[in-house]
Amino acid sequence: MALVTSQDMFAKALNSDYAVGAFNVNNMEIIQGIMDAAKEENAPLILQVSAGARKYAKPIYLLKLVEAAIEDTGLDVALHLDHGEDFEICKSCVDGGFTSVMIDGSKHPFEENIALTKQVVEYAHDHGVVVEAELGKLAGVEDDVKVDARSATFTDPQEAAEFVERTGVDSLAIAIGTSHGAYKFKGDPYLDFERLKEIHSLIPNTPLVLHGASTVLPEFVDRCNQFGGEIPGAQGVPEDMIRESTKWGICKVNIDTDLRLAMTAEIRRVLVESPAEFDPRKYLGPARDAITRMVQHKIKNVLNASDKR
Ligand code: G3H
Ligand code: 13P
Ligand code: ZN
Fold it and tell me: For the chain, does the N or the C end have fewer beta carbons within 10 angstroms?
């Protein structure tokens, strides 16, 4: 049991039909809820921390909580920086005990993205840390943007091959139609599987990463709505599309929104049903259990990662 890199996890997942879940963590209950699910399912696991999470909880708290969770459960876990935007934050995480960092240079022109990614790869590899980069832009749902216009921002397969070759990056996040948050599609969900297959055929040894992969389960949206929230029009990636993507090089599937929904739905339920309650353990405990149930469902039914540890 230790903090490990994702290297072995990805090597096993690469030519198979499952992916490793990468779940965003912000506090103790989220970490415990996810760890319990991974232990129950005997599944490989990546816990990831955004810049916002570092600011909210302070990096040292998250590191120590993850170390405690590893000691408590006996699981190996990769601790990953999600969407690092510059060299400094990646260096800080490498120096601070993370085993994996993402440098997200996707907003920069191709050559700048390459230069920035190379700089991070060099530093991280010198310290035994692996690196994820991103090429292409995750599309947001915008009113008049049609599929053709959205796909102009998707990852170009030839560029992906050149990018991996020139940067030496360990894994690559690609854009094929997913987006962050609870509103991913207007109308029918669409992912560009032909593009994914082409990317995978050009760089078959590179683990690919699917961001924005929450499925936004109606059960949780309904419960949020039922207990006083309004999340109209929420739509996630269909579960079968995530499963399909794992056959074409997707080794890491990022999930944050679904955790937020599961947790918030349960806290709302408790506080609506027991309005006089003010002991945080009485709503955070059930919220933690809701996260465990949701993550177990993902591991088993969406990622196909049970018993793949
Ligand atoms: O991709 C972004 C993750 O959902 C993290 O979100 O920056 O609000 O922590 P955050
Ligand atoms: P979701 O918003 O779909 O959960 O995506 C999270 C993510 O990609 C984190 O990097
Ligand atoms: Zn992301």
Answer: N
The residues annotated with a catalytic role in the active site are 82
Find the 260 Cα to ligand 1 centroid distance in Å. 10
Question: Which ligand is closest to the CA of 258, given by its number?
Answer: 2
Distance 201 CA to ligand 1 centre (A): 30
Token pair recorded at residue 178: 């997913």
pLDDT digits (tens, 9 = 90+) for 60-102: 999 999 999 999 999 999 999 999 999 999 999 999 999 999 9
211 lines ligand 2 (CB under 6 A): yes
Q: What is the pLDDT of residues 283-300, one digit of tens each?
A: 999 999 999 999 999 999
Residue 106 Cβ < 6 Å to ligand 1: no
Residue that is written with structure tokens 């999930």 in the block: 255
Atom of ligand 2 at shortest range from CA of 182: 2
Global pTM value: 0.96
Each residue's pLDDT tens digit, 241-283: 999 999 999 999 999 999 999 999 999 999 999 999 999 999 9
